[in-house]
Write the structure tokens for this entry.
Amino acid sequence: MFGTEGRGMESRVFGQSRRSAPDGGVHLVPPEATVPSEFEGAAAVALDADGTITGWSVEAERLLGYSAGEMVGRSVTALLADSAAAPVGLPTPENWTGVVTVCRADDEQVQLGVRLWTVQRPGGTGPGAIAVGYDLSEVPWWEANRPLLERLLARSPIGMGVLDTELRYVWANDELERLGGVPLAERLGRTPHEVQPMLDPDSAEAVMRRVLETGEPVLDFEFAGRVRKAPHQHHAAAASVFRIQDAADRVLGICFMVIDATDRWRSRERLALLSEAGERVGNTLDILHTAQELADVAVPRLADFVTVDLFEPVIQGQEPTAQSPRRARTLRRAAQQSVRPGVPESVARIGQETSYAPGSPVGRCLEDGKAHLEATLAPADSPWIPDDPERAAKVAEFGLHSYMSVPIRARQTTLGVVGFLRWQRSDPFEEEDLELAKEVVARGALCIDNARRYTREHTGALALQRSLLPRETSGSAELDVATRYLPAGSKEGVGGDWFDVIPLSGARIGLVVGDVVGHGVNAAATMGRLRTAVRALADMDLPPDELLAHLDDLVTRFIDEDSSGDRSASNALLGSSCLVMNLDPVAQRCTMARAGHPPPALVGPDGTVRFMEMPAGPPLGLGYLPFETTEIDVPHGSLLVLYTDGLVAGPEQDMEAGQHKLSGILGRGGDDPEAVCDDVVAELVPAKPRDDIALMVARARAVPQDRVAVIELDSDPAVVASTRAEVDRQLADWGLDDLAFSTELIVSELVTNAIRYATGPLRLRLIRQSVLICEVVDGSSTSPHLRHARTTDEGGRGLFLVAQLSKRWGTRYLPTGKIIWSEQELAAA
């Protein structure tokens, strides 16, 4: 503190021979009178046992104005302004330090900082003393009070140091030397950056310089790094810094006090890592993503290289099975992370199978289910390394030197293992690191197990949903259909939106899109119930409005049945929406109705896009408003676009804005439904949609007129024969002679029944499609029914024959009458 050069050396205050003073006096020269070199240049006086001056230096003459001849032989108390302040006798072995007021030769008083210690006089003539003094107004404060400071602060349990205005050490106590491992002699005259270059010196010096400039003290400033006494270990220190000024407010430097905060820093880092693990690990229910989060959070705060390996059944969402002895140490790499890009230390890629030697930390970890630490990873200390040449090569290449393996355990079951390695950080793992790793892995294990159990349930629910959605949506030769289903949050999820394509009588096709409230298994099961109900109602050939009315009644009944039990199914049913559309490619007309569902879009052959104006209808399960039917023309080549509200509505936009965007995409042209679906999904659907999305794009084609034959009939039994003949000619034109006999029987029966039991007008229509369709229209609303005639009955066998000869048959009602229809398979089909 009290000088920057020659610290710890000693020099002679007086020479070893008599020499003349300028005034002719002499200096007594005791050769044993040596003092520390930092007092060189100060006034020095030699005293005998009774305080008589026996030596007087040139510096004393300069400072006080008395020559040696005047002072040698006189009592030192003659110099004091207050003789009572003088020490009595020789100083004790601890010496004496203080401030005294001395009278100069010009009668001016001056305050001196004095240090007095005992010496042995030459020739064994008894004890003596040496007094060294300096003008307090001419020396820094710390030099004036250095002895006092040394006694008070040298043994302080807090490290303390004093820096000058250039931030160079001028003093440091013993504790600071112990904390940093740097002797005082190597500190003096050097900056903190030069003394401890690895202990974050830049930030520390920045704080010290700010205190020096502003005078505002800084308390408990923390910085971390490595110190010279332990370069392989991380240390932290907490310092308080304040500025030093003299009585005239001159800035003399700064003083800082520092304590070892390594334990506190490590505890805080430990808590921070555990907190980060709790926040970052388990944000999804994807097993591999969760494993990667676990690896990411540990690098680089705990390790330089981390691997996460899981048993194969765990990745598939299953419970880990009992492993054979050979397979017990074979896992699949689920995640890995390194301080180096590309993870070059790894011997396996993500998803690749990897195995471990029996005696390796991972091998032992899997055998006993306990964490293992190898602080030093070397062939001499790790006999398993030669048994694993691939990993041994990585150990040698990257200098991997410390290894921890921690099992991933949940519900008393080992799911896998996490490996922690160090090579960039030179300090090895310690027991504290192992305990921290165990806590981090324990939190990750819970998340991985939750993801595994979710994957298992999710896989089952996904299989259920896929089994409930239609596998074939081609409709017919007159309709090209493309569909997309995107569940909320993930393209592999489970939701309640659905669609269906239902073949109807008379070459018509039913298009249905629905939206069930909620997500998950309940929504998927509810979707299955609604889809089954819609198909059953569609087989009754009901118009869309009547179908929705029956479906609404059915939903209400389902809700009532569920009211006494689990309400989750009821919640999924109530408020569900549905759109039903019947497309007739012969008439090029479409009849539709909706229950709280967004209206469909129609893209005309010329590319114009319009959303259908139709009554909204109430959502299913409310049952207080009727449903209404809307009819539109659908020209050949038109696109029908059906969707759920998740496609066009969300928190960021309302439905109108979403429909405007959809209209812009559809208006760009293109008649391939698959390509249109791809464009819509790419531009409107985010990576993780917030709501389920179902999309159906259907391209309608008209049935060619040469494949439709219409025969007007009179209500006269005689027309039956002529009708059969006309049917034969039409089948011959179509190349369907093989169906002539069966078709004659079907037409004869249907026309005969219409003439006998119904009213006019009567009409027969034949449609050649993928099947041969025969339709007889009459004006009666009475439906025939199939019955088993007795052997003695003369009639009642006609519809039985129709049923036997047809692929399917039925009755469809019109506003004024009905249609009895029959379908036959074509031989070519």
Notes: The radius of gyration is 50 Å. The chain has 22 helices and 33 strands.
